[in-house]
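Record now logged for everyone:
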Amino acid sequence: MTNIHSTAAQMSAALAAKEISSVELTQQHLDRISAVDGDVHAFLYVDTEGALAQAKAADELRASGKEISPLTGVPLALKDVLAQKGVPTTCGSKMLEGWRPPYDSTVVTKLKEAGVVILGKTNMDEFAMGSSTENSAYGPTHNPWDLTRIPGGSGGGSAAALAAFEAPLAIGTDTGGSIRQPAAVTGTVGVKPTYGGVSRYGLVAFSSSLDQAGPCARTVLDTALLHEVIAGHDERDSTSINQLVPQVVAAAKKLDVKGMKIGVVKELSGEGYQSGVSQRFQESLDLLVEAGAEIVEVSCPNFEYALAAYYLIAPSEASSNLARFDSMRYGIRIGDDGTVGAEEVMRRTRHLGFGPEVKRRIILGTYALSSGYYDAYYGSAQKVRTLLKQDYERAFEKADVLVSPTCPTTAFKIGEKSDDPLAMYLNDVATIPVNMAGIGGMSLPCGLAPEDGLPVGFQIMSPVMQDDRLYRVGATLEAALLSKWGKPLLANAPELAVR
């Protein structure tokens, strides 16, 4: 029987067979959110009335006999960085508290056209700046595997909603790993498409040359189904790639890696990686070899500079993008008592509207872009970015895809790294190079670390607009792991809050 623990593909089949209606399925998930989200805090806003109206419309569309998407009527959780008309969109910040956009982002438009039911908006690090969802102005999200631990960031709300069975599908955004890292620590699947493969129109910008929306789910096939819904060229986005969407669903169903060369990135392993993470990663490589793949080692020597370059480029672009929040055009307005000037109102608004991490990155970015420092910092970081792209190009001459652990460690305790920004930033060391080069990346669960029983993520990287390779390798590994485990990894989650 179809229920909240079913996959999106199973829900789609049940809807097609009229075993359940979208209204019933949506209500099941709304009930689940009501029951557990007080503990998990995956959602910032639950659109109960809107979701049920969308579900009713999806049922009517299915009954009409018209051509529909496989995901028509299937519920989804939306990261609160994408504009949805008439629905609060805060980016996890007090600065946008209560703002209801007058338009839909392209991703939301595509979801609505496909009949996907949007349950609500998920929690996130403020303006997508963070690796733990502790930087949300509305409080942290908790990892359903252990409520004392982080669910990753910045898209921890979307990943936690999946792991807690509050939604079968979710949308995230990935600037330096914010889809893949939460997927890794919650035992879910997340894909960062090729930059430009999914429209950024209506995505509130953090770092415009790095931000990329993408699909999240509990299985590789579900992620592929969602990927095909949201991908495609958009004239309203100047960075959108005008090419055919890779056939990711067909790739996810292929389950064949015979003859493929899989490159293990030498620089993304070893010192600093938790032993259990390395163990599960090696076991996954062994399964791919058994499936017929060839493992080769590749070296990307400039990866050691990726983290430093990223934390110059991303804050610099954030400094520019967040300048629009000036208390004059939109967002909150603080201290306008008629006795002070516009600059003082702006100062008060930004002081109270932005959180500590956002202020830290704005200051860092403004400094890097300032007169006399641009070439030394931002300019040099862009040169490193070029070297990273060249490393990838050489590596992809030797391998069809590249792989690594998604994160050096499993989920850490909430508050454990709050006072040490550098330690927090190091959590993204394996994911950042993908964004810097604009290529595709996936994280899927590859087991539980023996030290703490928490999920470990396996990262796959593919060349530009070859995202189908992610799904081919990911689905094959997922099938091998499922055969080994005998049941989905999430069936092992110990917290009562997710039952």
